[in-house]
User: What shape does this take?
Amino acid sequence: MRTIKKTLTVVLACIMCVCMTVGCSKPIYTPTFTWLHKAYGDYFPIGAAVMPYSLTKYEDILPHFNSITAENSMKWRVTEPNEGEYAYADGDALVAWAKEHNTAVRGHCLLWYKSLPKWVRQKAVDKESALDLIKKHVRDIVTHYGDSIYAWDVVNEALKSTVTVGDIMSGEIYRTGNITDPGSVDWYELTGVEFITTAFGEAAKVRDELGLDFDLYYNDYSLNDPKKREACVMLVNMLRAADIPIDGIGMQAHYRLPSFTKNKQSFLNEFEQSIRTFTELGLDVQITELDICIYASSGDPQVFDGLPYSQECAQAEMYGELFKICRKYAKPFKKGAGKVTGITTWGVADANNAHNSSAHREFPLLFGVDGAPKKAVYSVIDF
Ligand code: GLA
Assistant: This one.
């Protein structure tokens, strides 16, 4: 027994010495199951939104993903805080990391009504000034990131938050009014739909001029809702009528568990119907900001400090079903149809999700607060 103990100690000491010599003071984590993106090798990339700090904080989990999205680093507010003063360092760091780790980068986002530097609101006073600003910004960013990006969210959230039948009948589907934050601009009020056609048109133009190869996406939330889906189709038709290219739809997919558990089949049918409708138009679909909060609303009182077993199981089931539908559309379902080309979760682990504040724990991602894989991880690779 003593000899065995002695031998073990020597072996352990040797391992530690070797590790310290080659500089791996921390053991490298490998999953007991598989890297997620490897399980999806025959389907599409699996991505996560990241902050610059995520690259070190989540170095053990990030190998699960072969695509990243800059959570904020490529937004206008960050890239040009003052007119003509560019701040690309954060986005550049993500791109450099991605190159080193053989990971693709989604670009998010060229034009949004929010997250703008204040000077843009001051300068965008009429249609001409607004469109000039948009053109310059799109050209600057697309040129700067060049071929590092495989898909750009060209326009984010141009549709009304909630679309009614009346909106569809009247064509009043675009977000406008009540946009008062100093970091926001009511693009529709200033330009009508031209902020959309201009952003897509300019991105396509720069892509051609520079011989780049990224796809152009329209990105929004609640696109599983039938009325908002219809409005999105109208937006696509509007672009096409103006002869402006668009390659795909980003379904953000910020979901809440109770909307699934209340009527699972209906939730999944609508989700699938949106993918079917968009791909039928010949567009690709990416799930761009997936997370599943456990409360019905962010205003609900926080009941749980941890994620209860029953909620974790239901959340895993929902993740599993959504991924299953996406796999079904990883190839065109008919000739001329587009396909699902990626799923990205909005954050890496529960502790860095925008909806998981200390005041309201929502546990919305695949990996837990401690970074451990949740049941959802196992359910999305169970096929
Ligand atoms: C939207 C945006 C994202 C992010 C989230 C916040 O979905 O597209 O960039 O800001 O809101 O959770």
